[in-house]
Amino acid sequence: MSQHPTQSDEQGAVDPNLPPDPSRRFWVASACTLGGVAGVATAVPFVGSFAPSEKAKAAGAPVEADISGLAEGQMMTVEWRGKPVWIVRRTKATLEDLPKHDAELADPQSDRPGYTPEWAKNEYRSRNPEYFVCIGICTHLGCSPTSHFQTGAQPGLPSDWPGGWLCPCHGSTFDLAGRVFANKPAPDNLEIPPYVFSADGTRITIGVDEDNKA
């Protein structure tokens, strides 16, 4: 993509030795958040949203999402610990295209600590390549990016846009593995929460993994 420098550009690279900055990871009720909700509504239909009870949310308990009705190319949102968690069922074309723009990303291998569990340090940043799960908060100032899954030229995006998210506040862009493009304000990839699939693959429990027990 012509607008982004390659990974070798020192200004666009992220130092993997820098510590994570949790202070950036909060969800603010701002114009960015409102823009994110509107953008998703127009670009990708919601299948479900904000399902857990107020009691469960307040306790920070694990949240279960039913993904049995999630079609290819769709995204659903649930709330966990007061944060929006996006679940996307990626298409086969998306999976094939992900490696093609690695050179344009700030941290293509998710080497920077604090945002990607060890089990998600792969090209897809997921347990199952077909499903991508992330916290929908920009790592710059805590806004909620808008989805732009359609590929190609669009307002504010390059002509060879591969699909992903755009943060309307300051222009950070992320691919469909939540990886930030180089030379953007956001310093990190979107955060991957702990989660596991059910045995039959129809549900995802967010808040539980090898290091986070229910």
Key descriptive features of the protein:
214 residues, 3 helices, disordered N terminus, 3-stranded antiparallel sheet
Offer a quick outline of the entry.
Helix content is 12%, strand content 20%. The protein has helices spanning 31-43, 54-59, 92-97; strands at residues 46-49, 63-66, 75-80, 83-89, 131-135, 146-148, 164-166, 173-175, 195-197, 203-206.
Number of helices: 3
Low-confidence stretches: 1-51
Largest sheet: 4 strands, mixed
Instruction: Classify the secondary structure makeup into a structural class.
Output: alpha+beta
As a percent range, the share of helical residues equals 10-25%
Q: SSE order in H/E notation?
A: HEHEEEHEEEEEE
Counted beta strands: 10
First-last Cα distance? 42 Å
Q: What is the topology, as strand order, of the major beta sheet? A: 1-3-4-5
The quaternary organization reads as single chain
Name the beta content range.
15-25%
Radius of gyration: 16 Å
Could you please describe the fold and organization of this structure?
The protein is of the alpha+beta class and 214 residues long. Helix content is 12%, strand content 20%. The chain has three helices and ten strands, in the order αβαβββαββββββ. It has helices at 31-43, 54-59, 92-97; strands spanning 46-49, 63-66, 75-80, 83-89, 131-135, 146-148, 164-166, 173-175, 195-197, 203-206. The strands form three sheets. It has a four-stranded mixed sheet, with no helix packed on it. A three-stranded antiparallel sheet has the order 2-10-9, with no helix packed on it. Strand 3 and strand 4 (83-89) form a beta hairpin. It is globular and about 40 Å long. The model is unreliable at 1-51 (pLDDT under 50).
